[in-house]
Structures are given as C-alpha cells and as structure tokens.
Amino acid sequence: MTLKPQLLHDSRCLLGEGPVWDHRSQKLYWVDIESFDVHVIDPNGSEHGVINVGEYVGSLCVRGSGGLILALKSGFAALDPETGEVTPLADVESHLPGNRFNDGKCDPAGRFWAGTLALDEDHGEGKGNLYCLHADHRVELKAHGVWISNGLAWTRDQKTMYYIDSPHRTVRAYAYDVSTSEIADQGVAILVPEGMGYPDGMAIDSEDMLWIAHWDGSCVRRWNPRTAEVLATIEMPVARPTSCAFGGKDFDTLYITSASTRLSPEQLAAQPLAGGLFQCKPGVRGMPMTEFAG
Ligand code: CA
C-alpha cells in the first residue's frame, strides 16, 4: 500500500524531530534540534508557536504534572510552554561535552527514555548511550556503545521495547519489564536494507506494527517487527523524514517531521518542503503516548 502525506506546516526546520501529541490540549509538539526550538501547533495548522530553549533539544514529552520534559544537551529539564521557563532536572553527560541528547519517549510506566550521540556523528560509533529518567528524577544508564540513538517504542502488552541505532540500520527488540524498567537484548528485529535510507524515529500503532521514518529514504514505512516485512509506504516529498507520531482526536493521524540540514542548494531546490511538518491518515490508529510521571 502506498500513501501520500499532506503538508501541515511549512516550518523549514533544520532538524525537525520528535513529534508528540498532547491529548489534553489537542496540540502537537515537536523540536528543531539544531535551531534549539520547541514547536507547537493545533491540528488545523493555524495556531503555530515556537519557544527557543537556547541549546540543543533532542526530544520532549508531555509531563503529567504539567508542561513538558526536555532532553537538552545539558541534561533533562522541565519546560513551561506558557512562560518559556526551563528548569534543569538532571545533569547526565556533562562529562561528555562532545555528546548531545537525541530521540526520546516515555515508556508505559511514565519513565522518560532518551539517548545520546556524538556531535561528530561520522566519528561517533559507540559513543552514544541510552538513559532512563525515573519519576523521582534518578537517571539510569540502560545501553552504551550506541552510535546514533534514535526511535523507541513499546508494545501494547508492555513486554517488548524496540530501539533504533540509525547508522547500523537496526531496530533491536528488547524484553522489557514494566515494573522495574529492566531490558534484555533479544537481537535485531529489522535490518533496513542498503538503499532504503536509515531508520530514524518511529511510532507504534494499535496492531503493534512500527511506522519508521527513513532518513535519506524519502519515505515512512510500516514494518512488521516480527517478520521484518514492509506492509505500507508513505511516499514523502522530502528525502529526510525524521520521525512520526500518532495524534488527532481519534489518534488516526500520523504526524511526520522532516529535516533540511546539510542538504546542498540543489537538493533544497528539489525538495522545497524539507524541514516541514506533514500529516497522513494511514487507515490504522495509534494510542495516546504515556506522559512523564515525575
Ligand atoms: Ca531522530
């Protein structure tokens, strides 16, 4: 099945990433990592706002106690989107000034997981880590030796976590214990073939299938992680879709972020919507994202 998205906002992000639907406010948040911006938009695309947080912002999640939680270069922090005030919660990698946070998401128990990468990505193999921020703001190292820590997803039965390391083109499966947050590596679930781009961010739908943004692959694909089969393709008008999330009133809309960073003038001329925010109704629903419990 082949699907086409619509442009929701011509936001021209450098590195648009990490869409999160806030079902309380019925708005979508996302980040522009390299512009240090948090974006927010209503589902009609008419009310759009930007908050500059002054440093790399890899990902965000809605916080149950109000506002947002951010994975900043300097660590985990809270953001009040009404005032723009940023409050540090936990220092994580201040001993690694060459690293920054990247993709993150809350697990089914409301812990916020986010990973890091080396700013010098080409020489960053093994330099990234995956962390879990517990509700009491304790930070736990969950995986190390990662290259570009990216998409995360948990299955509906809360027993499996999927995790992407982009340059290795892998989606790994982990046995996951929701009561303790412990993970156990079960190996590669999907190895994205060469020529399909790199797996970046992802969303999981109500049938436990993964919607994966293919960086430099000009598409978002629906994968069955148990068989490594492609089930559907959203053909994007941009080469670098970065991530996706289900949202909308009925969770029937897939919101897709994209990047324009490091494209040549010729490439930018060929894909003028690069960095924009897109939407697509793929015919399957997602589920509400868990809010951060701390
Ligand atoms: Ca990403």
Describe the overall structure.
With 294 residues, the chain is mostly beta strands. It has a single domain, classed as 6 Propeller (Neuraminidase). The chain contains one helix and 25 strands. It has a five-stranded mixed sheet, with no helix packed on it. The chain has a four-stranded antiparallel sheet with strand order 2-25-24-23, with no helix packed on it. A four-stranded antiparallel sheet has the order 3-4-5-6, with no helix packed on it. Strand 8 and strand 9 form a beta hairpin. It is globular and about 45 Å long. 50% of the residues are buried. The model has no long low-confidence stretch (mean pLDDT 97). The structure holds calcium ion. Calcium ion (CA) binds next to strand 11, strand 19 and strand 23. Calcium ion binds next to strand 11, strand 19 and strand 23.
Defining traits:
25 strands, 4-stranded antiparallel β-sheet, Neuraminidase, 294 residues, binds calcium ion, single chain, 2% helix, 5-stranded mixed β-sheet
Please outline what is shown here.
The protein has one helix spanning 265-270; strands at residues 2-3, 6-9, 16-22, 27-32, 37-41, 48-52, 57-62, 68-72, 75-80, 85-90, 99-106, 112-118, 128-133, 139-146, 149-154, 160-165, 170-176, 183-191, 198-204, 210-215, 219-224, 229-235, 241-247, 253-258, 277-280. With 294 residues, it is mainly beta. It binds calcium ion.
